[in-house]
Amino acid sequence: MLSLAQVEEMIKTKLPDAQVKVEDLTGGGDHLQAIVVSSEFAGKPKIKQHQLVYGALSEAMASETIHALALKTYTPDAWAATGQNL
């Protein structure tokens, strides 16, 4: 089982400028939700943004260490427009 901090670091390795928040949805450590904010997402459709994050977690997902991931991605400007804190 990966810790939430390990999942965050895996994402940040692929997207070094990212702000990341990962939550465990079920308490079992394998159904996660992540919010990722990165300038790398600028000009990319949501599917490409998600593919970048999934690429960072591909090994954990292939081994089913992470069974499910609910993902929300934002550019820094889009995140700022939500008015939320990460």
Please characterize this protein's 3D structure.
The protein has 86 residues and is an alpha+beta fold. The chain has one domain: 2-Layer Sandwich (GMP Synthetase, Chain A, domain 3). Helix content is 40%, strand content 23%. The protein has four helices and three strands, in the order αββααβα. Strands 1-2-3 form a three-stranded mixed beta sheet. A hairpin with a 6-residue loop joins β1 and β2. The chain is globular and about 35 Å long. The two termini are 24 Å apart. The relative contact order is 0.22.
Helix content: 25-40%
Provide the CATH topology. Answer: GMP Synthetase, Chain A, domain 3
Strand content: 15-25%
| CATH architectural group | 2-Layer Sandwich
> How many whole angstroms does the radius of gyration measure?
12 Å
Number of domains: 1
Q: Write the H/E string, N to C.
A: HEEHHEH
First-last Cα distance: 24 Å
Please outline the major beta sheet. 3 strands, mixed
Poorly predicted spans:
none
Overall mean pLDDT: 94
What is the name of the CATH class? Alpha Beta
Global structural class: alpha+beta
Number of helix segments?
A: 4
- Count of β-strands: 3
The CATH superfamily turns out to be BolA-like
Specify the overall morphology: globular
Output the strand order for the largest sheet: 1-2-3
Quickly list its features:
86 residues, alpha+beta, GMP Synthetase, Chain A, domain 3, 3-stranded mixed beta sheet, 3 strands, 23% strand
Tell me the layout of helices and strands.
Blueprint: H1 4-14, E1 19-24, E2 31-37, H2 46-56, H3 58-62, E3 68-74, H4 76-82
Parallel strand pairs: 2-3
Antiparallel strand pairs: 1-2
Helix pairs in contact: 1-2
